[in-house]
Amino acid sequence: xxxxxxxxxKGDVAxxxxxxxxxxxxxxxxxxxxxxxxxxxxxxxxxEIVSTLAAQDTIDVNHQDTQGNSALxxxxxxxxxxxxxxxxxxxxxSTTHDGGLSPLIEAASSGHEAIVRLLLDHGVPAxxxxxxxxxxxxxxxxxxxxxxVRLLLxxxxxxxxxxGDDICYAFVGAAWAGQEVIVRLLLxxxxxxxxxxxxxxxxMLAELAVRGHEAGVRALLAQDGLDVNCRDGDxxxxxxxxxxxxxxxxxxxxxxxxxxxxxxLLLAREDVDAExxxxxxxxxxxxxxxxxxxxxxxxxxxxxxxxxxxxxxTSN
Length: 316
Prior knowledge:
By secondary structure, the chain is mainly alpha-helical.
């Protein structure tokens, strides 16, 4: 580590000024992690040093370390409001990911509402994505940062019709994590369609059904216009998916325990087609029987629910 890098990381303002003004230190030199003096100062919240470095004509304000984080990204992630303000005032500073990570998304992931607001006011699109395809909304939901979620949903460029897949991801994540307030916030957005699909082709209902998430399924079933018999690429309905569940490493005991409850919820709906056949001609009950072959001890209870539904339909 060079003297300048060490001084910047420690917050030694006098040493930084001395090294720049009298020693001619290379202000853009990076360590093995790709971090420059500006990045070290920014991530540690040393705003005086950031101001000193940012004022240098040759400063590379957008340099990214090996993780893809710029000085602005680190300041946003760590909640250093003063540093963010200084960097946003630097001519040429990038507020987008530029092949790396995004300051807005980093701030949202950490729940720093004030910094998210700063960046939005600076013109950063609320629905922008980083190099991983992640948005601020999904990462704020993942962290259960309700205030940030509310702030983002209030932005005009969060458009449910155009950003349906993002809303889907956010909803599934919130439901799975038991974030009931955020679930209600997402469903209350004007223009949200409960029938939008994720990139894997599943609707929100299908995704939660296969995971056995009772509360999320219950919330969706209360919405008008929900297609309870929507099909995936294999012709399976949410009832098919709930009856069989997830297998192998993807399956958890939480999944398995919830499947029976989800099957009950779906079968209680008169508009759910209990005899729907997938592309291979299998009904949801057939899928429950297949679960037996996977040594799933819930299969008998699920099959019993199908028998009860059949008896009810027959008596009617």
